[in-house]
Design goal:
This protein has 6 helices and 7 strands, in the order H-H-E-E-E-H-H-H-E-H-E-E-E. It is α/β, with parallel strands linked by helices. Strands 1-2-3-4-7-6-5 form a 7-stranded mixed beta sheet, sandwiched between helices.
């Protein structure tokens, strides 16, 4: 609800705090982005499972450099799902493929540390696959956290380290994965007011 309130209030623009995080990089590909469409609960099929990976908000944006895909994972206090160790325990062959496929897409030469959170892995690869589908030149997986003490930031930082994220700023990192769209991951802190803001009824 906090993310919905934030996006609704800022429409037809990107939320201001997301703009700030992207433009702090001084990367021309991430500045002056125009929001074309924001789609809630965006689904991306990944091998090895019977349910798609579901991103909270998929934003298709553009500037003079081209199209940029933003896959936004909204959080308040909830964690990023189970760890990879928890997912691997007693997993079927299909479930193992569900983990191994995104690891390969991110260029991992070996399995990621079992303490890494499964959701961060899937959402990052979902953003990348969506960027490929739209022929975008940049994909960004962005955690939009409304926790005022940045709860679970340590899990995000552990993921950044595991995939060798190269810092552009203290909140935005680039992953070098070879050909195709550039891939970035970031952390954005949402404004406290959205924790108690109610959306107007549609009835």
């Amino acid at each position: 609800m906090s993310a919905a309130a934030c996006w609704e209030e800022n429409e037809p623009q990107l939320p201001a705090e997301i703009v700030d995080v992207l433009e702090a990089s001084n990367d021309e590909s991430l500045t002056a982005l125009e929001l074309l469409v924001a789609i809630p609960e965006w689904e991306v099929d990944l091998p090895g499972g019977d349910r798609p990976s579901q991103t909270d908000v998929l934003a298709i944006t553009r500037n003079d450099d081209g199209v940029v895909i933003l896959g936004v994972e909204a959080k308040v206090d909830e964690p990023f799902g189970p760890t990879l160790s928890e997912k691997r325990e007693g997993a079927s062959a299909g479930q193992i493929e569900r983990i191994s496929y995104p690891e390969r897409e991110l260029g991992c030469s070996s399995s990621l540390d079992g303490r890494i959170r499964y959701q961060l892995l899937h959402r990052t690869v979902s953003a990348l696959l969506t960027a490929r589908a739209f022929h975008a030149h940049v994909a960004v997986m962005l955690v939009h956290s409304f926790s005022q003490n940045s709860r679970w930031r340590e899990d995000f930082d552990a993921f950044v380290n595991a995939v060798t994220g190269i810092p552009l700023t203290k909140d935005l990192y680039e992953l070098r994965i070879g050909d195709g769209p550039r891939l970035l991951i970031g952390w954005c802190k949402g404004a406290e007011k959205y924790l108690s803001m109610e959306l107007p009824s549609s009835l």
